[in-house]
Every structure is written in C-alpha cells, then in structure tokens.
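Repro:
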Amino acid sequence: MGRVQRPTNDEDSIASPDTINFSTEQRIEFLANLIVNRILDDTADGSPLLQAIESAGI
C-alpha cells in the first residue's frame, strides 16, 4: 500500500523559527529578554502574575 502524498507549496511548508539557528548564548539572551519583558508587562498591569505566584506559594 502506497503512502498518500499531498501537494506541497510554500504555504504548506513547516516554518522554522529563526531561533533554531541561535547559539547557546543567543538562546539564553533570548529567553532572558522574554522573562524581563514579561516581568515589565506584569508590573505595568499591576502585577497580577506576581500576586498569583505569591498566593500559590511558589
């Protein structure tokens, strides 16, 4: 029994994020920036995430 093949084009291709080619140092910096930005957003919104973490005892 043969495998079903579907037509492929650019829209069907799986996109790989640019981060896949990052070095270890670049990945760490990328993650650190995400964390810092999330903390800044949370602080600007009145810290609901921090409050949820503290109330959960984490």
